[in-house]
Amino acid sequence: MVATVVIDPPSVVALGAIFTLFAARSVAAGSPLRRSVLVGAGVGGWMGLCFGVQSFKQPAWMLVYLVDPRTLPAAVWYPFFLAAMVASGAIGAFFAHRFIAAGRRNRALWLAVAMLAVWLLLFALTFRRYLAVGTYDEFRSGRARPLSQQPAVVQDFNLVTLMTAVPLLALLGAITWRNRRRAAAAL
């Protein structure tokens, strides 16, 4: 089994690439690599911060019950996880930008698709563990309750999902609007 903290970075590499793909016109027109990397790093950081809520509220679940959080507290591993998320977004944006700037937009797209496929594969390997939420001891003894029986946890997950997605979708909208405005001004 693979812990959540290990399977999230591939999805963030994909997001870094996807955000850069949305800015492909600007990249192809000479937008600086630094801008793409900073956006990717920001996306990764935001994802890491949002996932931080569960890192501290449900640490055994975030670690997919592989490690007892009493022996590895979130305060120890979370800063490394956050740094990995920032780096993952930056890496995805870096490579996507380089591909797009070289006229190989399809490679940037394939980078995003490949990283999403890696994430899906890793998620599938741990799916059963995601459906039970509890402490490390509860999971190990088979007493962790299914997610469907925990409305408060489902509410937390839904709030974190909204907190994560809404700003990122707004940023994608802003990037798209900016690119269209620039394209219209160039005509």
Describe this structure in words.
The chain is built from eight helices and two strands. The protein is an all-alpha fold. The chain has one domain (4-182). The protein has a two-stranded antiparallel sheet. Helix 1 (4-22) runs antiparallel to helix 3. The longest helix is centred in the last third of the chain and has 36 residues, at 151-186. It is elongated and about 65 Å long.
Q: Given the C-alpha coordinates, what overall shape results?
A: elongated
Q: If you compute it from the alpha carbons, what radius of gyration comes out, rounded to the nearest whole angstrom?
A: 18 Å
How large is the share of residues in beta strands?
A: under 5%
- Name the poorly predicted regions: none
**How many helical elements?**
8
Main sheet record = 2 strands, antiparallel
How many separate domains? Answer: 1
Query: Which class do the helix and strand fractions yield?
Result: mainly alpha
Average pLDDT figure: 91
Strand order of the largest sheet: 1-2
Percent in helix: over 70%
**Number of DSSP strand runs:** 2
